[in-house]
Amino acid sequence: MTQSVMDELATMTVHRETSVGWDEQSLTNETVDEDGNHYIDRPGFAAGDPHAPLRRKYDDSDVNELRSYLRENTGIKGLEICSPDEIDRARRIYFRDGFVVV
């Protein structure tokens, strides 16, 4: 790995905003085959998200609008989120729901 990649990975987080994974050159709503080749509107394979912004640019106004919407409207209403020290609670939720978010 190059030093710039190592530097980028050293500061990567999954709980704060990050630029890791943003490639402005990537097509939006992309679908790829098993070899990673792009297929756009490949019948019977997958459909792109019609709500996705048209550009994959971190500071694009449509991206910011979607980001704000998703902050306020999470995917599962009432989803319980555990902190890493809540082991017993996480276990109870896992056995109740079949998954848990930590």
Report the portion of residues in β strands. under 5%
Order of SSEs = HEEHH
| Unreliable segments of 5+ consecutive residues | none
Helix percentage range: 25-40%
| Rg | 18 Å
* Main pleated-sheet profile: 2 strands, antiparallel
- What is the number of helices? 3
Q: What is the number of beta strands?
A: 2
Instruction: State the end-to-end CA separation.
Output: 30 Å
Which strands sit side by side, in order, in the main sheet?
A: 1-2
Region (Disordered): 31-57
Description:
With 102 residues, the chain is mainly α. It has a domain of 56 residues. The chain contains 3 helices and 2 strands; from the N terminus they run H-E-E-H-H. It has a two-stranded antiparallel sheet with strand order 1-2. A hairpin with a 5-residue loop joins strand 1 and strand 2. It is extended.
Entry summary:
By secondary structure, the chain is mostly helical. It has helices at residues 3-10, 61-72, 87-97; strands spanning 31-32, 38-39.
Topology:
Elements: H1 3-10, E1 31-32, E2 38-39, H2 61-72, H3 87-97
List keywords for this structure.
102 residues; two-stranded antiparallel ribbon; mainly alpha
